[in-house]
Amino acid sequence: MKKNILWLLMTACSFAQAQNPVKNIGNITSADISDQTVNITTDNSFASIIVYSPDIIRVRIDKQKLKADFSYAVISQPLKTTVNISQNDSAIIITTDSLKATIAKSPFAITFYNNAGEIISQDEKGFSTSWVNESVTAYKKMQDGERFIGLGEKTGDLDRKGSGYTNWNSDVFGYSVGQDPLYSTIPFYIGIHHDMNYGIFLDNTYQSDFNFGASNNRFSSFGARGGELNYYFIYHTHLADIITSYTSLTGRMKLPPMWSLGYQQCRYSYYPDTEVLRIAQTLREKKIPADGITLDIHYMDQYQLFTWNKERFPDPVSMTNKLKQMGFKTTVIVDPGIKVNPDAAAYKLGAKDSVFLKYPDNTFYTGAVWPGWCNFTDFTSEKGRAFWRGQVKFFANNGVSGIWNDMNEIATWGNKTPDNIIYDYDGRKASNLEGHNVYALEMARSSYEGAKAAMNNERPFVLTRSGYAGLQRYAAIWTGDNRTEDNHMIAGVRIISSMGLSGVPFTGMDIGGFIGAPTSIGLYTRWIQLGAFLPYFRNHTVANSKSSEPWTYGEECTDISRNYINLRYKLMPYLYATFYEATQDGLPVVRSLAIDNAFDPKIYEQAFQNEFCLGKNLLIVPVESNKDFTKVYLPKGTWYDLYADSVEQGGKETIIELSTAKLPVYVKESSITPMQSLVQSTSIAPTDTLYLHIYKGNISNTFVYYEDDGKSYDYEKGSFYKRNISFDPQQKTIVLDKVEGQLVSKFKTILLVLHGFDSNDKLTINNASLSTKNTTISFLSPITSFSADGLIKPVDSCKVITAAIKNDNGKITIGF
Predict the structure, then answer these.
(1) Continuous H helices in 326-458
(2) Which tops the pLDDT comparison, 689 or 518?
(3) Exactly one of 153, 159, 291, 406 is catalytic; which is it?
(4) Is position 406 annotated as part of the catalytic site?
(5) Residue 792 confidence (pLDDT) above 90
């Protein structure tokens, strides 16, 4: 009888285990506190809680003993922090001067609080962290009204509540506007609720999954298909500071070369060399400013890397030199696949040094791409990166200034790289399951480091299609093979805004759409107008399609396109200073309105979620080509219409009539926006007058103006010009602080252009009277083509007060 009872109990226990394939983390069985770290053992796992800074707490959890710490994304170490860690029978309590974390012991569960004792984020009761086979997931209680933004290159709404996403870098030619996953992985998001915001970065390169209340009303969750649960919890009262803290972990962009901020002309593909030079010459003849020509795969000999097609490009050095003389830099596409060709120098060296990805039997992984069967450099090994750095010299030797990394998800025909590919993973060894998502990041790193070493103190430009968190350290990124449709144009804005929220400032999309031809001149025009306010401004289109240069759509389109490209070049001092800011604090160039208005529910509405700011000052309203009217929402405060200086009060929505010739743009009150004279290329010096546009307002504001030579790394040795410029409505002053840096500004005179001021505002400079002038300015030129009634289309103008001052390096105070 006893044997039967024992057998029944054992059977019931086995049945219960078989019916419960989810393994929970369990109760804490021991905890060891050491300085800023708590090492924990639970029933089913090992954990480490690390205070990284007063605002960042790291959580590591695994079923097995935690491995040696390693990350391709995180480049910083914990800061020495004043922290109090204690424990009692029920919990471990970690307190810094910014937040508190309580780790319940039975069962293990983490709750984060602010200094007021309010819950910022907490594990979902009963779930916490658990495993299903090798997949690990953290479950968080969904707070009332919680919103979720960011997560990098993702389609969908600004607020991701109710949606789920997968991170697995994918080649998605002609993707739909709701498709997921896309090309890159940035597993970082920001949660917003009850006037609080926080960030969570999951640093795990396996396929990861995020659920923000998709198919459930109880929790949000994030996890990965293997490896440890390794995440950083970030808390600040201001959302912008969360991005700054995240980029303190994953790094920030180096200053790009100024030419890469100019207009870039590309197609799949420009060849032969005479066609490339014709395109460049036409841009100059039509006075459309431009700085770059980009060559797609047809420049290569049968698509083989580190070659030129000698029939199409018999003398590439001569061609790139001619382009430089015309003010153009050359960018070329580079794929990771090296054709299996024992007669090719690059392949021969790569095979000899065994730098390619391998199968478990130590043979090279071979996949088919453009050149045919290829092997792929293992960028997760230092040997592979060194090989690639050496090969990249080929481009510098041929006068190439930009490297465009494409197909680096890895993309192969069939789009199914085998799981059993082995990556070196810097000595750790990893399968494709863990190495896949980080491959493109390390390719971008190798391209950047190789180009930098080869270009003799000249800054290279690197563009990538794919990547992982931290990609901003090495490259710009664009949204891949988009389609020529209104909804793709608008979706691209949200993707770029999302990448900005996720620490990537240098972003863009193929202007005009890559696949197909614009269905209307209006669509192309709207896209060019929008592109003028994006960080990376490249026109690109697919092979065997209508040419998509601005002049191919008629004179009116050419005029409008020229107007907005002109405006971008006039804005170059503002744009460059905004890029400089991104190198300092990680804030993006394109800024979702959520960065400064996280708790304003209107900005998340579908009618307004596409609006964004270029830097601190300019609010852009993207519009579809088929609209005659659109809704606009301006956040609280006072705003100026860019073109007419009419004043709009924020905090309300309005309906405005649209003009094909103008994209709605507004300027924030108290803004300080430096501009320059028009140039056809950044290689040409503007006139020696800096136009400093200052908009009257009721709030104080400071703008950091920055210059360097725009091409070298000399700024790292002090060769720069920087000064803080502030507007103070209470003191009624505009102050230009003393200049920092050793560089002499290229501008000898500053012309103050005062918007919203009137003749009653008497100006002084350092307490002396300042001579002023009433004048009228226009940001756009008249459209010279004629409308149906035969009249030249009017252009709005602004009535302003101007005053010229000498660009003195000392402190300058202007009173009004």
Answers:
(1) 345-352, 382-397, 432-435, 439-454
(2) 689
(3) 406
(4) yes
(5) no
